[in-house]
Design goal:
vitamin c; alpha+beta; metal-binding; Plant_2OG-oxidoreductases; metal ion binding; 5-stranded mixed sheet
Amino acid sequence: MASTSAALKLLAQENTLSELFVRGEDERPKVAHNAFRDDIPVISLAGIDVSAERRSEIREKIAEASEEWGLFQVIDHGIDPDLISKMTRLSQDFFSLPDDEKLRFDMSGGKKGGFIISSHLQGEAVMHWRELVTFFSYPIGARDYSRWPDKPEGWKAVTEAYSENVIGLARKILELLSEAMGLEKDAIAKACLEMDQKIVVNFYPKCPQPDLTLGIKKHTDPDTITVLVQDQVGGLQVTKDGGKTWITVRPVKGALVVNIGDHVHYLSNGRFKSALHRAVVNSDSSRLSIATFQNPAPEAIVYPLINSNIREGEEKPLLEEPITFAEMYKRIFRRGLKLGEGKPQNQTELDLTDIIA
């Protein structure tokens, strides 16, 4: 019943929530979508290329946020606000299309990219309260425009410009993280070989009983780094104690949310956290977010980058042996990542792939 867009719209109009979306008591949100706190750092990138002193100051703030939360917001990031506004407006317009228009891009049945409801893991009984459209944007030569929406008008051109700007920002932040580890600024980029990019646009309709469900359950991202646009409604939550305490990230106008993925967590030998986060919903208004995932090439080797601690034997590598990103991805998906003495951040929560709040 809830496998089509029409069904989710109808369910949203009910007074009670369908059992398909009801979470167990231990998963139900206790912190509201708009119970904002200011724990998450908001970092200005202004002047990053002006002086070594300013770059060092920004680098230190990003490293500290990545160590504590694995998540932060950036302002003065250099991406044109008009471009972000256009991307957001077109995304909203897409989810306002008639159901038959969206379902032309139905990605059920293993299609690579398109539109779908919920996108919970195969075998999971409880669905996520969301719709999404997703497509692959890098490498450019691998783009399959047949899986990109062709409505509303202007989607392709705006998305191409947006994806190019975001991958540029992601590379700049990865340079700072590389430098913070005492490495050359292109160390993480080299470890990625060729960076892949996937865009996921999430739409969370109003929900009749938001205290019983989640837009997306708690998870970490397996990618290298994620850049997120969220509207002003609120609903992104993050934790640094395994889910005992949840912080609702305050939307900051013009800011982009950045969160560290599992890939960088392992490259940094656990120094930088991969953020454990989720999305909650509400009964007053819908919410939209646009997540851009930067992944390494499937054949890229995942192993802590050389640093003095590992070289001198003062700290053992987090991974027992080098593996490819494709293998890391599979092991995370199976909850079977082999480890050394260390333990990955939120190991038991590494159970959602390519999904962001």
